[in-house]
Amino acid sequence: MNKRPCNRLSGGTAIGFQFNREDESPIASLMDVDFSYNGQPVLSHVCLEIYPHDFIALIGPNGGGKTTLLKLILGLVRPDRGSVRVLDRSGGAYSPAIGYVPQNVNFNEDFPITAMDVVLMGTLDPDRSRRGKKKDNMDKAMGLLERLGIGSLAYQKIGEMSGGQRQRVLIARSLMTRPRLLLLDEPTASIDTKGQADFYKLLEELNKDVAILVVSHDLFIVSNYVKSVACVNKGLHYHPHEEITGNMIETMYSCSVEDVCRVQVLAHGMPKPARQAAGGQTHGNI
Amino acid sequence: MGIFEFEFMRNAVAAGILTSVICGIMGTLVVVNRIVFLSGGIAHAAYGGIGLAFYFRLPVMLGTMVFSLLASLLMAAVSLRLRHRADTIIGVIWALGMAFGIILVDLTPGYNVDLMSYLFGSILTVPNMDLYIMMGAGCVILVVVVWFYQDLLAISYDEEFARIRGLPVTRLYFTLIAMLGLTIVMVIQVVGLIMVIALLTIPPFIVEKYANSMAKMMIGSSLLGTVFCLTGLWLSYRFDLTSGATIIMVAGFAFLLTLAWDRIRPVAKTRAPQDG
Known about the structure:
By secondary structure, chain A is α/β, with parallel strands linked by helices. Chain A is built from nine helices and ten strands. Chain A has two domains: 198 residues, Rossmann fold (3-Layer(aba) Sandwich), CATH 3.40.50; 73 residues, no CATH class. Chain A starts with 27 loop residues before the first strand and ends in a 9-residue tail after the last helix.
């Protein structure tokens, strides 16, 4: 099988894509993945490996493929080419190793359901024998709700909570199967700045036990907490920890629609064409 | 009360209670899944089945059930595949089904029952056989809903999450719609088309605000529906009015009352300030 080169940024050599990873195996990996929708290519030659203790921000423009990437890891869609693997299984099969927190926490607010029942949904399984005993699940659910600071709201209706509280309920739900990887889709879209800081501190805390992949529109807050950044704009550029500097925090760039990854710009200086246009100003290419 | 000496009245009460329970359970699923329009489509399209049954001299219940099953599965498929056009197509099937049924009855030689009687039903002339059928169907629905409760709750509340967890969402949805189709057909025979829609939607709508689980909503809707039926039957007896319509008026009046009550004393939404 011809391995086409993966679309990733190699800050150093191709081997230096991940650091100190020889002893660990990835929780999830995408190898050379293509995906199109209605004939339009959405993702092209994408490679990504997610290891335990990773805390990756996934940024990129709308339509650039972030949501598709999540769906591929979740097994909701299959790639046209390439492979998606979750632990030892091919992606496409449901995996309790992946927890998922969707973007919109404010849908279906009027539904007659308590926080406890939402969290208990986390143990759903097509195989009934794997759903666990109700009492054990309720204890586990309560433990998670308390850990997330909303234990007192366990029997409140989901519509009577704030957006932030609802989100914590959904996080608790995603943690019920003790996942190895947590996927969050734009979790702070409707939270104010102070709330966002608290939220990311919570994620930092959770990161001790689970790898985290956060889809975000905003690099600004995210860069304070995450360990690495992946930019998705049809292709994928990966920036390990060493490349995320204080400069990023001060600059409010996110990936633009043009084919230039701004993070690349920030991390490595101007890309070639812009460098020439700037009249030969040299920035070292790291 | 002297009226209970009459078998027709006892049967009417029994039919009312059974209908309320069945509609309480299925109606909850209809309201939380936001498929009220789809249910209306199934109910009116059922007329096509009635017409077919008459024309081909099939037993009415059987012919209607088969046709309704097909129509409801078709509408379910449409609502899944073409979400944005779903209500248009349901509207088309709604009207066509009804017209189709009426024409078929026109073309059937001999004396035929007026299809309008299916509109308001005949709760005062329920034969024992129909009661037994309803009891049986009620038991089946209860068993299915209890067995699949977690799955139905999941697809009703968060379909995407259910899919991610590997639940057979499409199969469950079609099962739900098929059960709904059979429910509607059966209940139309007894209490009429209009009352089916009213009992499927009004009690669950009222109860939804006050219930904190889908199960409680089902129980509450069944009880409330029963109250409406018994009140309506008594009023229709007292004032010599059409029973089906009276029951619906009672339900509608209660509906307006709860809307007004909600203005005066809204169900508390204890929102904490926005937090992380």
